[in-house]
């Protein structure tokens, strides 16, 4: 096997983009690192596809994993340091995933700049998606396959190497305690705030506890948040803790033990859809107050009622 070039990786995405069942937005991406690559279009996780038609919403979320997130979850390698090719400009939610997964460079197919998302959500792409990329030190380039040409869209003046995770804590896992026990213990320390906890297997199979908090992506400041967060009707800058937990595990090549996680506050609709795509089967919730999305509880009821995700109220 040889290391794919960005042109070859983009072609892998283009080759499958029309396989997406999404009616209006067919998007594909390819994540590549060394000799390995994985290409995905935007898709519905199979448990959702078996139960629902494509137009049914889960809370306020569609059923579709975005192509970028699908690649991150499907990768059989740690995503930290990987590059990503995508057929369309990426939304702010995917920008957060890209930052959290430790991706080092993003390439956008030049034809995507004239497609639907760029026209409908171009302001969000420019003011939120690219802001997060720039602050995290992640270059974004426009790729021309036919001309074999790459043009920088943003070139952050200082590129950073992936460091320790922001908003993450680790602890030794006591095998005599359950995840519900740990949820209760951490609730005594930090009640009424948004965080998630899980038992994970590291790449050497070591068992570790991990605690993920709601945070802004690397480099984004509270001032950026106050200036930008009210400018979009659809997107927000903080990363939900359950999403952060899943993206960090993909970043490091870790797995979540027993497909179990716990959240102090009720996860949002998009986090729950992503959790199904990640392969989680059970989520324990400390309290029914939403972490931010008032439709999260509605989404959880739909998933629980259909046997897709077991949600246990502590």
What does this structure look like?
- It is a single chain.
- This protein is an alpha/beta fold.
- It folds into two domains: 149 residues, Cytidine Deaminase, domain 2; 146 residues, Cytidine Deaminase, domain 2 (3-Layer(aba) Sandwich), CATH 3.40.140.10.
- It is built from ten helices and 13 strands.
- Strands 7, 8, 9, 10, 11, 12 and 13 form a seven-stranded mixed sheet that branches. Strands 2-1-3-4-5-6 form a six-stranded mixed sheet, sandwiched between helices.
- A hairpin with a 5-residue loop joins strand 8 and strand 9.
- Helix 4 packs parallel to helix 5 and helix 9 packs parallel to helix 10.
- The longest helix has 21 residues.
- It is globular.
- The termini are far apart.
CATH fold-level label of the largest domain: Cytidine Deaminase, domain 2
Describe the largest sheet. Answer: 7 strands, mixed
Query: What is the multimeric organization of the chains shown?
Result: single chain
Please give the CATH architecture of the largest domain: 3-Layer(aba) Sandwich
What's the level 1 CATH class of the largest domain? Answer: Alpha Beta
> Total number of β-strand segments?
13
Question: Considering DSSP H and I runs of 4 or more, what fraction of the residues is helical?
Answer: 25-40%
Termini separation (Å)?
A: 49 Å
Strand content: 15-25%
* Low-pLDDT residue intervals, each spanning 5 or more residues: none
User: Any idea what the shape is?
Assistant: globular
Tally of helical segments: 10
Q: How many domains, as an integer?
A: 2
Which structural class fits the helix and strand makeup?
alpha/beta
Order of helices and strands: HEEHHEHEHEEEHEEHHEEHEHE
Nearest-integer average pLDDT: 93
- Report the radius of gyration as a whole number of Å: 19 Å
CATH superfamily of the largest domain: Cytidine Deaminase, domain 2
